[in-house]
Amino acid sequence: ILIDQGLADQFLAEQLNPDVFEAACKAAGQPLTLRRHAGYDHGYYFISTFIEDHIAHHAKIFSTELCRSEERIPTG
User: Fold this and answer.
1) Threshold 0.90, pTM exceeds
2) Which residues pair with 6 in a beta bridge?
3) CB atoms closer than 10 angstroms to residue 76
4) Using one digit for the tens of pLDDT, what is the confidence trace for 37-64?
5) Distance (Å, whole) CA 58 – CA 75
6) What is any Pfam family matched here (predicted)?
7) β-pairing verdict for 2-6 and 33-37
8) How far apart are CA 51 and CA 70, in angstroms?
9) N or C: which terminal CB in the chain sees fewer CB atoms within 10 Å?
């Protein structure tokens, strides 16, 4: 899981609670990359700044899963 969190987000403390999510991932053994960014809120500029990283992250995961699934498909 990859999360980028703006530290100036108006929803941070009362609704998003990334520290709680981070603790839950740790307790469950779920890998998490939680990147906190000072000066960013929840707006378009924040999303447009980090979206490329998220697309690359998902592409890496999907390509890995695709390779795994192809290994399981019987050929011929």
Assistant:
1) no
2) 37
3) 2
4) 999 998 999 999 999 999 999 898 888 7
5) 27
6) Esterase
7) parallel
8) 28
9) C
